[in-house]
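[Solved] Which block belongs to which protein?

Original post:
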Amino acid sequence: MARELVRDSNRIVIKIGTRVLTEDDNRLSHATIAALVEQISTMLPGREFIIVSSGAIALGLSRMGMAMRPRQIDMLQAAAAMGQSRLMHAYEAEFAKSSHETAQILLTYEDIQNRKRYLNIRNTIFALWSKNVVPIVNENDTVSFSEIRFGDNDILAAHLANMIDADLLLMLTDMDGVYEEDPRENAGAKIVDEVPRITSRIRNMVYGKESALSSGGMESKLRAVEIATKGGIGTVITNGKRIDLPSLLSGDPVGTYFIPFKRKLKGRKKWIAFNPTTEGTIIIDSGGEAAIVRDKKSLLPVGVREVVGDFRLGSNVSIQNEEHREIARGLSNFSSEEIGLIKGLNTRQIPDVLGTESCFDEIVHRDNMVILV
């Protein structure tokens, strides 16, 4: 039944990993790109595809004669600059064989965090689709600094999938899916067909950390899966070296399918919930938690115990309970300084404390809040 959601998917984000796109000598696998593009092309224009492609840094490092991925940000940026053009040229050449146009989109962490940029990117993608263009997306490693980077394209793909209201996130790696145990130790290990929710048992199955030339791994993919499925987007992890895309999109049991949450957030609330970062934190007591989670009410000053960070009115903030577990996110009606003054108070006391005649009753209004538990 769950695989019917895959079969019915029309808007699809395909994330292709570095180890899928490169050969053992770390050079570009033209055969792999050709096979993937051919399969995608046969399913156009019936579906909308967007590709999130890794591989630029690996290709750049190969051109620079470096066998290992460096830690220095300037060397990574230089490698990305050298690899991006070669990677994009490969996609353009293959899609041209079926007379399909491509477009390159380079994103930074700040592009997703900023609401205006977020909407601009979304509109650009929709405009490209209207012209039957296939967008090729990568993190803009040439300008991103370590403290504002997504970290790898798995996370970028998940945020992008939420941004464009995708039906499916397809993550292509060098493994056939998530195994019940490490297949390197047990050749008979079986693939998990479907995962309703990511539990500690699923996390314990994870293995395969970063490679010499890539920054992801199965652990990173599970973090991406959580972001996507909580946004109502089903996700498949499977092998990109021998992918049969038509079979997968026909609902056949290919790879591991992560079943999405039933809720479908839209517009501003999706941006609030899945923004890569928040600008501050509000700690609330058990009464405030019950009001938000159980009673579906707004957050009032009386339920606030502590405010962390320095933020302005309108900022996207994390709302956490007394155990510091995030239970919600929302747009604050007050600055962090103001919340520090009115926390724990009755709403009637706010005007006198802040020295104003009128103000909001709520710290975060229900209409600007997303529950995450």
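(Second protein starts here: sequence line, then its structure tokens.)
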Amino acid sequence: MSEVVEVSIVLADGATLPTYQTTGSAGMDLCCSEDFELQPMERKLVPTGIRIALPDGYEAQVRPRSGLAIKHGVSMVNTPGTIDSDYRGEVRLILINFGQDVVKFKQGERIGQMVICPVVKAELKVVNELDETLRGQGGFGSTGR
């Protein structure tokens, strides 16, 4: 069984409580709190009507829904989007329509997912040299040769 963490939530008028669709779902579905449409290649900041309070040491990642991507070409511009534990504003998603048709959404439709994740803080240590590895500085496709 996964760890369970308590997250406080405030629902505005028109908001839908995020829910896990199955017992094995990693993300809760997020719904839009108002009707809207996306023209081809249009991006829009879409409200969910929810505000959350995450415990210290956690973040919420907002991600696109695969069904919207394959059916309509709708995705998110910044994915995953990060919601920090000290943020108390409305959760909103930056959606984009990569498809060729206008996509219309009704209030309460699922538009994204939210995954709650633990956060590890890094302590940076300035050094003159890094340790050597077999890969070295090879990047951007270098391991596929």
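Accepted answer:
You had them paired correctly. Confirming on the second one: The chain is about 5% helix and 35% strand.
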